[in-house]
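Please produce the structure of this protein holding nicotinamide-adenine-dinucleotide.
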Amino acid sequence: MLIGIPKEIKNHEYRVGMTPPSVRELVENGHQVIVETGAGIGIGVTDADYIAAGAKMLPTASDIFAKAEMIIKVKEPQPVECHMLREGQILFTYLHLAPDPEQAKLLKESQCIAIAYETVTDSHRGLPLLSPMSEVAGRMSIQAGAHCLEKAQGGSGILLGGVPGVASANVVVIGGGAAGTNAVRMAMGMEANVTVIDKSLNRLKELDMQFGAKLNTIYATKDAIEHYVLEADLVVGAVLIPGAAAPKLVTREMVKKMRPGSVMVDISIDQGGCFETSRPTTHKEPTYVTDGVVHYCVTNMPGAVPRTSTFALNNATLPFALEIANKGYKRALLENAHLRNGLNVCRGHITNAAVAAELKQPYVEATVALEMDTISTTVHAA
Ligand SMILES: NC(=O)c1ccc[n+]([C@@H]2O[C@H](COP(=O)([O-])OP(=O)(O)OC[C@H]3O[C@@H](n4cnc5c(N)ncnc54)[C@H](O)[C@@H]3O)[C@@H](O)[C@H]2O)c1
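Below is the modeled complex.
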């Protein structure tokens, strides 16, 4: 298969769809890879690195879109990219279509086969192409929180790990999933006093087994959240109710009672945030202060570390990219139900029930759309 990697064009997006090691894997599996000149520049990867991995460089995105059978990206296609997509071309990337009717319309019009990273599933009821970014955000939350606790950043001037003779900071992580576990791990590594609060007892049991007695695991009740938040120097919000807005677990009243200069990092902000006082911020202006408490609510935290994020994302996407390239999209999607869950748009049909419901558009089951695709291709061939 001929696979194309265009340079990302969304504002401040430096990640790239495939790294040179991934390109090499694709090439060794008998595929050809074309990469837009300068695609890896934002993560310190040169054109020479891609060429050494077996790719061919082409000067513009339109060259890539015009030739490739499958486009691999990171962010949802921007309108100019949607207009370059061709009938039957495979698009493998994050789409986040539910709140984006304009993109859905353009993808339908293009008649492409759009597979969204965020809805691919695994056998543990997880989202394997989303979790690498939660891992990055979770680890970053402690780094960002520690920085915000510095006096010059408006923080209370507490060092997370303390020093001999001086107490460490109290870190409270609400939600112990992919992001929360990684936050816990970093905070424990920095020798803070760490408490994780979750409403899943199974999750708390797993965390207890993983981290042992040094981690305080607490079942989520309003009472527990209030108690631990009021004693915290740093609170990390990392809850998720799939498909729903994040519940507001820390109220404005609680924030008012926190120690001045305490810090709150709301990772769940991309789902609306789990603190009542949260509002989305950017890497340019990541924090604001409400009721004396520093809030960090950046919606695309992994964007700050695009090199790590690109490699982490590639580790998860490469096996699926190889499967699509090796088998062709139809066979790959029909044989792998988890990959099929990623199919959002197939030749003009919305094939993800949640996306169709959200956009109030007709839903066609993925297998049905793929069968129709076979029929139309056969008729066309005949
Ligand atoms: N801001 C960013 O840049 C960024 C990056 C990646 C992920 N995220 C977001 O981080 C959030 C967490 O993602 P994840 O992959 O860790 O999810 P996850 O599903 O792995 O974990 C969520 C955890 O929250 C717990 N939970 C749900 N409701 C709860 C409640 N009421 N009280 C306590 N715990 C509760 C669940 O039991 C689960 O353990 C998501 O909103 C995700 O979109 C944000």
